[in-house]
Amino acid sequence: MANNGLRDFERRLKALPAAAKRAAKVALDTSANELVAAQRSLAPREDGTLQASIQWRQTAELTRSITAGGDTTTVAARAGDGDYDYALGQEFGTQNMPANPFFWPAFRLTKKRIRARIKRAITKGIKEAYGK
């Protein structure tokens, strides 16, 4: 009988990583959507190109990457010295324009809530896998 209890315990322990990963994936996707929405709400609204460039993608099983700018916001520099991504100019400012940050303030605003959501999801997934 004790042997069955040990096997049952080992089976439950083996199920924990998969359950935690499943729960974390959902929480990561929800959190990425929330962060992108916050960044888009803080981004300047001139023609919407910068807002549309803010997006997330899955880079690994438990990793989400959020980017802003890129090819859609890159234009030729006024002085003719190559290309210029105006998403960076908005975030950090330029010689001719003060910073109008949107990316990092939204991250700082949502960071605690995102961490808490992921921790809760993992805990819930573990409890469901363990049978409590």
Description:
The protein is α+β, with helices and mostly antiparallel strands. It has one domain. The protein has a two-stranded antiparallel ribbon. β3 and β4 form a beta hairpin. α1 runs antiparallel to α4. The radius of gyration is 22 Å and the shape is elongated.
Q: Order of helices and strands, N to C?
A: HHEEEEHH
Radius of gyration: 22 Å
| Lateral arrangement of strands in the main beta sheet | 1-2
Q: Between the first and last Cα atoms, what is the distance in angstroms?
A: 21 Å
Mean pLDDT level: 88
Whole-number count of domains: 1
Based on secondary structure, the structural category is alpha+beta
Q: What share of residues is helical?
A: 55-70%
Please tally the helical runs, counting DSSP H or I stretches of 4 or more residues: 4
Largest β-sheet summary: 2 strands, antiparallel
Low-confidence stretches: none
Tally the beta strands.
4
Shape: elongated
Our estimate of the beta-strand percent is 5-15%
Topology:
Elements: H1 2-42, H2 49-53, E1 55-60, E2 63-67, E3 74-76, E4 83-85, H3 86-92, H4 103-130
Antiparallel strand pairs: 1-2, 3-4
Offer a concise description of the structure.
With 132 residues, the chain is of the alpha+beta class.
Features:
alpha+beta; two-stranded antiparallel ribbon; 132 residues; single chain
